Amino acid sequence: MNKASGQDHHLLFNLIPHLVWIGRPDGSIEHCNDNWVEYTGVDPAKGPGRGWCEAISPRDAHRTRAAWHHALTTGDLFEAVCRLRRGCDSSNRWFLTRARALRDAEGRVVRWIGTCTDIHDQKLIEKALRASEEHLTVALTAADMGTWRVEVATDIEHRGANLNRILGLRAVPSTQARHDFLARVHPDDRERLVRAVGQTLVGAVFDMELRFVRADGASRWGRYRGKVLADETSKGPLMTGVLVDITDLKLAEERAHDESRINETLYRLGASFARELDEPKLAQLIVDEATAVVDATCGAFFVVDDEALHRFRSHTFSGAEPNALASLPAQQITQLLAHMLHGSGVSRCDDTREDQRYGALGPEHAGHPSVVSFLIVSITNRSGDVIGILLFGHSEPARFTARHERIVRGIATQSSVALENARLYRAVVARETELAAAYAIAKAADRRKDEFLAMLGHELRNPLAPIATAVELMRLKGVVDLNKEREVIERQVKHLSRLVDDLLDISRLVRGKIEIASELLELGTVVTKAIEMTSSLLEKRAQRLAVDVPGQGLLVQGDPVRLVQVFQNLLTNAAKYTPPHGQLTLHGYREGNEIVVRMIDNGMGMSQAILGSVFEPFVQGDRALDRSEGGLGIGLSLVRRLVGLHGGTVLASSAGQGKGSEFVVRLPMAEADSADGQVRPAFATKAAAVPAAAPRRVLIVDDNADAAATLGGLLRHLGHHVVVAHNGPDALALLNSAQPDTALLDIGLPVMNGYDLARRMRERITADELLIVAISGYGQEHDRERSLAAGFDDHLVKPVETNRLLAVFELGRARGRDRARSSEIG
Q1: Which alpha helices (H) appear in 545-616, and where do they start and end?
Q2: What is the rounded CA–CA span in Å between residue 755 and residue 37?
Q3: pLDDT tens digits, residue range 247-271?
Q4: What is the DSSP secondary-structure string of 160-183?
């Protein structure tokens, strides 16, 4: 090679963008371009004999040198991808090295011409692409997703390795005819896929859920998602996409949907069960509904006996073949059901003919039904005790599944709640029935008590009436020698009358039958009247009473009679429990918006035990055995109830036995502008005796001969004309002959009671001509109302004070005058 030619070759080498070198037959570099020198830092001109292999990275040296020596030996084309070391910084880059041998006429290698092409960037891209493909493969595998591509024009399908794995084939990429793609789709879904793809335009996406068939014949659900593309390098469109195995998702959706249906069914059954509170009907409803839901041919519901767990209390059958369970004993629990009594949950038997529990003779030998498959669930209460067992049977084997087990568990829970509600309702109804019966008994007893008290009052007042009348007659006749005896009898009669009144009052108060006739009162007037009515007892016991109650300024809104009764009872109680010559003190004053009255004595006092019940009826403190002052133990109970009706309170206190007692009454303070602002005197001052009424013609009707005789004697002594009858018919017979203008009738008459007698009299004589007054031992409010309804003009309770009776006579006479005057004016 001449110099000019060498220069030309060198210039040409340098124009090539690769590393170019020329080597001798042994591979040592004879000549190279500047790119080689610049990259490797090796200049053959400065170091002859060095080969290009010296620039190879040690990591690739063994593999590359072996291939190079093979090429040197055989003279074959050499091609290798390896990393070459950069001379300036010893870094490595990837190169594609190729060398071809030049031979002489005899075929001997005379030179090697080689190039090293920098492919480092390409290698990095390939590496990144491989990593991306690996990541994609991992992702596709994790997502059960495979890729596919179909060339429409050539009917060729390309599958990724993952798609073949999903299809149950060898997990490597493959290429096959298009019809194999369709063959993998389930026959029932194939036409739908073809139709959808055919209707998809270029650039559009199709997305379908179809079944595909694996290589082993199993069907699974897949989501086919693809796009039709226009491929410029082919003769037609290209379809590419993915197949996602969604079988697990579909199964999960199906399970969720099935669970939803189960829950809806259980909700419906629960609501249906909750509406039925009759336990036998509920048991039938449960077994009927449950048998239908699990599609059993027969069902049974056994209720466990609470007192004997080895026996059933009742059982209920259902289904198309209830007789199939008829062989189960009505009471005895069999082997099939025994283990369910311990809360075993659900038990399933697919084929009783193969169940080892029954042996060679089969289930019928053990007393069990002649059905093949069983499903049994125990029903437990909140305490975990088994209260019932549901059993379902079918004539075919393996008819019950895990799904049925889930259903019957839910039914058992709903049944447990419903059964407990039904039993609770039954207990409530039984309790209400007991309470109603107890209430009826108590009401009847209360009615009998009222009737007894009314009768007691009547029977006690009847003998008191002639005694009181006889005493009054003795006084009017001026019998002096017996004044002391008469006074004793008079006091005892008043005491007995007071006892009867208190007894009836406490009964009426307890039943809320007493009403308060409220008016504006001065407390001082009320207290004065109470002291007046208690003065004889205080005088008898020589007790001192200190009173500190203002005559005016302490206004209270209340019933004067009942308030006097309150303070009279407190004074009487203090007198009874304070020894003779004892000290009693009564204070009254204003405290804020209340009136406070303190009743203090230095008597027997009270223990803490008695203080807690002192206001209860029939409770009394210790007194002398002779009980000289009597009493029923209801006075303080009346005090508390009457004070309560006035919106007040009463409290008792004592420092202990022998240290006296204190009772504190608090009443709401009233203002002077209450009602009409007028304070009326609660009680008229003691007036003179009622003047003798004008003589009247009086008919007395009483079956008590003594009462009739004494009252008649009293009225005759006062100047009245009197006739007496002891029953209704005799009284009616006297009307024409006696022509009375006043009739005094007892209520409890024989033959004809006083109400009927009054009605008969009113039919014959008008109210203008005859005043009819009831004089009876019956003194309750309804007795008075009944008397007025029967035609009586007034109702007096035995024993009747003479002045009270004469006042009624005078009112009757005045009313007669008014009626006569009205008639004249008319």
Answers
A1: 560-576, 608-611
A2: 151
A3: 988 888 888 888 888 888 888 888 8
A4: -HHHHHHTTS-SS-EEEEHHHHHH
Structure tokens at 465: 């009436």
Q: How far is CA 455 from CA 748, 751, 777, in A?
A: 10, 18, 8
Cα 408 from Cα 616, distance rounded (Å): 61
Residue type, 678: Q
Q: How many residues does this entry show for the chain?
A: 826
CB 111 within 8 A of CB 129: no
Confidence of residue 826 (pLDDT cuts 50, 70, 90): very low
Candidates 788, 793, 733, 785; CA nearest to 768 is: 793
3-state secondary structure 136-152: HHHHHHHCCEEEEEEEC
Q: φ and ψ at 574, to 5 degrees? A: -65, -40
CB 645 within 8 A of CB 667: no
Q: Which residues contact 358 (CB under 8 A, 6 or more apart)?
A: 352, 365, 366, 368
> How many Å apart are CA 365 and CA 334, to the nearest integer?
11
Distance CA 470, CA 489 (A): 10
DSSP string, 511-563: TT------EEEEHHHHHHHHHHHHHHHHHHTT-EEEEE--SSS-EEEE-HHHH
Per the listing, tokens 């809104």 go with 557
For residue 181, give the nearest of 152, 207, 204 by alpha carbon.
Answer: 152
Q: In the structure encoding, which two tokens stand for residue 676, read together? A: 């009409």
- Alpha carbon 502 to chain centroid, angstroms: 48
Report phi then psi at 548, rounded to 5.
-130, 70
* Burial of 373 per CB tally in 10 Å (0-12, 13-18, 19+): buried
Tokens of 632: 């029923």
Which pTM value belongs to this model?
Answer: 0.45
